[in-house]
TrEMBL record:
<dbReference type="GO" id="GO:0016020">
    <property type="term" value="C:membrane"/>
</dbReference>
<dbReference type="InterPro" id="IPR016166">
    <property type="entry name" value="FAD-bd_PCMH"/>
</dbReference>
<dbReference type="InterPro" id="IPR036318">
    <property type="entry name" value="FAD-bd_PCMH-like_sf"/>
</dbReference>
<dbReference type="InterPro" id="IPR010031">
    <property type="entry name" value="FAD_lactone_oxidase-like"/>
</dbReference>
<protein>
    <submittedName>
        <fullName>FAD-linked oxidoreductase</fullName>
    </submittedName>
</protein>
<dbReference type="InterPro" id="IPR016167">
    <property type="entry name" value="FAD-bd_PCMH_sub1"/>
</dbReference>
<dbReference type="InterPro" id="IPR016171">
    <property type="entry name" value="Vanillyl_alc_oxidase_C-sub2"/>
</dbReference>
<dbReference type="Pfam" id="PF04030">
    <property type="entry name" value="ALO"/>
</dbReference>
<feature type="region of interest" description="Disordered">
    <location>
        <begin position="211"/>
        <end position="238"/>
    </location>
</feature>
<dbReference type="InterPro" id="IPR006094">
    <property type="entry name" value="Oxid_FAD_bind_N"/>
</dbReference>
<dbReference type="Pfam" id="PF01565">
    <property type="entry name" value="FAD_binding_4"/>
</dbReference>
<feature type="domain" description="FAD-binding PCMH-type">
    <location>
        <begin position="24"/>
        <end position="194"/>
    </location>
</feature>
<feature type="compositionally biased region" description="Low complexity">
    <location>
        <begin position="211"/>
        <end position="232"/>
    </location>
</feature>
<dbReference type="GO" id="GO:0003885">
    <property type="term" value="F:D-arabinono-1,4-lactone oxidase activity"/>
</dbReference>
<dbReference type="GO" id="GO:0071949">
    <property type="term" value="F:FAD binding"/>
</dbReference>
<dbReference type="InterPro" id="IPR016169">
    <property type="entry name" value="FAD-bd_PCMH_sub2"/>
</dbReference>
<keyword id="KW-0560">Oxidoreductase</keyword>
């Protein structure tokens, strides 16, 4: 791709994009790679003047087509780094294109950390906020709950700083918006003093961890493939003075790189060719996982190495609905198994605290998250559709960045502040500059 203009934001014509899973591919009419907030605003104004739609993209890690566009693609890769650190309040300002895996070390250099993180850190800050991305632990909200201010480039070409005192309605709506209100160029986040995490990873009989014992003090992630034991990861917070005991380089290379990803990729291929051997492969995978305990700075422990590509659907359910939802999921997998559909990827279970963010998946309720996956070369339709019927029937809300089939009529009943969100959207983007076919479905045209 070669620039077609000089000066200002770098532009390219016709680059082809795809999501990380490979499920969605598209070619925008034009791509712009701004390096400043002013360049973002100028690119938005120019696109709106030409009647083109605009979608921002960060790492492209969303499983849904949220970033797809036939208009102008704003690639925020050059918008990276911290812009301000307030040590007294723990608040930092960070450019929206900053990858989460870079944000951890940047904060650590100032003695700060994010209170919680998800298990994947490839996303950009802007993308993680837009899609209600979260970690695990009932004492902690998702990323959007950490936001105290945002700088937006809106459809009129303006740059607006919004928080609880400046355009508070726009602020509340923009904390999770799928990019439908404007382009987030900068976010202010509430951070905490840096800390260590001690992780304990092990395989356990599924009956011993379902139903789980939810704990705010020691968050747990559980994953299990149908018919196999559970793999659990429990994190305990410790002060920096406790000292680190990280996973050694050789152990990390062998267990995470070769076994967890390389061998698992071969197992997925084998299961795809011979579905009947999937249950046996799942059992071997679960019991063969490394049993280990390690301690390191938080951003190195929260995340896991995921190089095997997959497609994913995840639903947030009321905490009290977990047992019914999990039983329904088990019934789904048994029914599909009888028809020869045997998912090789594990189911992942996490929990997060309620928040007040209008379109957060945890809005107003402590939530349990159940995620189902299929290897990227397998058709997930039957599996995802059956699981979605169970989850949606129990009041579940899909992760905005993952696969689902919900629409605006559903969202109006699932989110108490959905009408307020729509009113803000009508006010700041009446011409629907920031939309695509996917947003037209989930929010309405």
């Amino acid at each position: 791709m070669s620039p077609t203009t000089t000066g200002g934001p770098a532009r390219t014509v016709g680059p082809t994009h795809r999501t990380w899973s490979g499920a969605h591919r598209w070619t925008p009419a034009r791509e712009v790679r701004p390096a400043s907030a002013d360049e973002v605003a100028a690119a938005v104004a120019a696109a709106a003047g030409e009647g083109l739609r605009v979608r921002a993209i960060g790492a492209g890690h969303s499983f849904s087509p949220v970033a797809v566009t036939d208009g102008v693609q704003l690639d925020l890769e050059r918008m990276s780094g911290l812009t301000h650190v307030d040590h007294a309040t723990g608040r930092v300002r960070v450019l929206a294109g900053t990858p989460l895996h870079q944000l951890g070390p940047l904060l650590g250099a100032h003695g700060l950390a994010l209170a919680n993180m998800g298990d994947i850190d490839r996303q950009s800050v802007g993308g993680a906020l837009a899609t209600s991305t979260h970690g695990t632990g009932l004492g902690f909200t998702g990323y959007a709950g950490m936001v105290t201010g945002l700088r937006l480039a809106t459809a009129d070409g303006a740059l607006r700083w919004v928080d609880t005192e400046h355009e508070p309605e726009l602020f509340e709506a923009a904390r999770v918006s799928l990019g439908a209100l404007g382009v987030i160029v900068e976010a202010e986040l509430r951070c905490v003093p840096a800390f260590l995490l001690e992780a304990r990873e092990q395989a356990e009989p599924l009956a011993d961890v379902v139903p789980p014992s939810w704990s705010a003090a020691a968050p747990r992630t559980t994953s299990s493939s149908p018919g196999s034991p559970a793999r659990t990861k429990q994190n305990t917070r410790l002060p920096l003075g406790a000292g680190v005991d990280p996973v050694g380089a050789f152990r990390s290379t062998v267990m995470d790189g070769i076994l967890a990803n390389g061998v698992y990729a071969l197992m997925c291929r084998a299961g795809g060719q011979a579905p009947r051997i999937v249950p046996a492969l799942n059992r071997v995978s679960a019991w063969g996982v490394d049993q280990r305990r390690y301690r390191d700075v938080s951003h190195r422990v929260f995340v896991a190495d995921r190089s095997v590509r997959f497609r994913e659907m995840e639903y947030a359910l009321p905490l009290e609905s977990f047992e019914e939802a999990f039983a329904g999921l088990q019934a789904v997998t048994r029914d599909l198994a009888r028809r020869g559909v045997l998912p090789s990827f594990p189911v992942e279970v996490r929990a997060a605290a309620a928040d007040d963010v209008w379109l957060s998946t945890a809005h107003g309720r402590d939530s349990v998250y159940i995620a189902v996956h299929r290897w990227h070369r397998e058709d997930p339709t039957a599996y995802f559709r059956a699981c979605e019927e169970v989850f949606a029937g129990l009041g579940g809300r899909p992760h905005w960045g993952k696969e689902h089939t919900r629409d605006a009529a559903w969202a109006a009943g699932a989110y108490p502040r959905f009408a307020d969100f729509q009113a803000v959207r009508d006010a700041v983007d009446p011409g629907r500059v920031f939309t695509n076919d996917h947003l037209d479905r989930v929010f309405g045209a």
